[in-house]
Amino acid sequence: MYTVDCRQQVRYQDLGMIPYADAWRLQTEINESLKAAKKGGQTASPVIHTLLFCEHPPVYTLGKSGADAHLQISEEDRLARRIEFFRINRGGDITYHGPGQIVGYPIFDLDLFFTDVHRYVRSLEEAVIRTLAQYGLYAGRIPGFTGVWLDWESASPRKICAIGVHMSRWVTMHGFAFNVNTDLSYYQHIVPCGIDTSQKPVTSMAQELGREIVLQEVKEHLKRNFAEVFSYNYVE
Fold first, then answer.
1. Which of 90, 116, 134, 228 is buried most deeply by CB count within 10 Å?
2. Are 177 and 187 in contact (CB under 8 A)?
3. For the residues 5-21, what does the mean pLDDT come to?
């Protein structure tokens, strides 16, 4: 006798270094395709969800609930530094994406997992928390704040992963920005996630461990932890 594995199926793709606009366009196309399949009714073929990992050239993105004042660099200086800027449709405030950071875009139909926004965000955090633990970095959550924090129970916690999501008809897009080897100087020109960094600074794995981390290795750990947290299988 045997059992059938009825877990959801996810296609993983590492996009490498990709301009922000191109990644936004791709995840939008995948998101719209999943929603169109829902609208048309279920077919005989199983739904394939998507998990995208990538890096971006330097870019600031401002969520729909963000404040313009949290971008604290002039347009002239920003252009001179070749930092792009986008207003986007995710939740949350302003954040930075750049080289050495793992940006993840899960495009999941949560109708086939669970329809709970809070649980979804906590699950994203959990995958990162488990990954950090594999490097001896013990992270957690702060009530009232999204993301993943080190020394989260202290008076001066440090944020290592930001999260901002969007969903329509329970199909997700956008996701998380996980600082591995990130150049943290770019955060000096914004109020990241609308949080005063003098009280809650931003950090990275490289800064915490005092060495550069092999990015591909972190991606592999993170990829496995996502599958465990969401209980799905990868497909080609």
1. 90
2. no
3. 93
Q: SS3 of 188, please?
A: helix
Pick the closest to residue 12 from 79, 102, 100, 73 (CA basis): 102
Active-site residue flag, 161: no
For 88-135, write each residue's pLDDT tens digit: 888 888 999 999 999 999 999 999 999 999 999 999 999 999 999 999
Mean per-residue pLDDT of the chain: 92
Query: In 43-149, which ranges are continuous DSSP H helix?
Result: 75-80, 117-133
User: Residue 107: helix, strand or coil by DSSP?
Assistant: strand
For the purposes of burial, counting CB atoms within 10 Å of the CB of 120, is it exposed (0-12), middle (13-18) or buried (19 or more)? buried
pLDDT, position 230: 97
The single-letter DSSP state of residue 171 is E
Q: pLDDT at position 10, please?
A: 97
Which of 6, 54, 161, 193 does the annotation list as catalytic? Answer: 193
- Strand order through the sheet with 84-87: 84-87, 59-62, 94-97
